[in-house]
Write a structure and sequence with these properties.
alpha/beta; 24% helix; TIM Barrel; 9-stranded mixed β-sheet
Length: 214
């Protein structure tokens, strides 16, 4: 097991997004990101952080008494030791979520980990970094997330969902960019197109405010 990881923060909150939204969750946010999305809500985690031993992270999780764990960032897959961390959580009986920006290979991620993969839309400025080969590593419990800022993003996402038959690959989610996209418009577009995706709003933003980049 790798000795340590560069960590931005470790905390407990309610899961704010995805199919497990609303459940208490133990979050490990790793530092460092290779992308610079225009609407990123955790830009403060792009750099910095402190080295924390994997043993300490696992001990803090055990003390929390919470079975659901999310490893997020930043971009957690930039640190090789994250694989060992996830294996450690799994071995100890946790349900493990991995939130990734989709630019890094999922090949080494344990199958038991529920992978939440961002599919970058044009407004992010990072759509060229979508790693399409990662689709082969996804299974039905995994999630593909489109963050939508405008109509162009929605049309891009709709096209990719149809072209790549994404609803057969994993659960597909659509979320409006906080305070940039009217959730009602996005909900209406989904209904008009009868698009088989899960609409979501960031629950943590509603509960805790702007700083809650969970």
């Amino acid at each position: 097991m790798a000795l340590s990881l560069k960590v931005a923060e470790v905390f407990v909150s309610l899961q704010g997004e995805g199919t497990l939204a609303g459940y208490p969750c133990f979050f490990v946010r790793l530092s460092g990101c290779n992308l610079r999305c225009r609407w990123c809500d955790t830009a403060w985690a792009w750099e910095g952080g402190r080295e924390v031993p994997l043993k300490e992270i696992l001990e803090r999780w055990r003390a929390s008494g919470i079975s659901l764990v999310e490893v997020t960032g930043g971009e957690p897959l930039l640190q090789a030791g994250v694989i060992e961390l996830m294996k450690g959580f799994l071995k100890a009986g946790a349900t493990v979520l991995l939130e990734t920006n989709g630019s890094q290979s999922l090949k080494g991620v344990p199958q038991e980990v529920i992978k939440i993969v961002d599919f970058k839309c044009p407004s992010s400025g990072m759509s060229a970094y979508n790693r399409y080969e990662n689709l082969r590593y996804l299974r039905r419990p995994d999630q593909i997330k489109f963050v939508i800022a405008d109509r162009e993003d929605y049309l891009f996402a709709r096209k990719k969902i149809v072209e790549l038959d994404l609803v057969r690959v994993a659960e597909v989610l659509m979320s409006p960019v906080w305070r940039q996209m009217d959730p009602v418009d996005l909900a209406r577009w989904i209904l008009e197109d009868k698009l088989p995706v899960r609409f979501q709003i960031q629950l943590h933003k509603i509960l805790w405010g702007e700083r809650a980049g969970v």
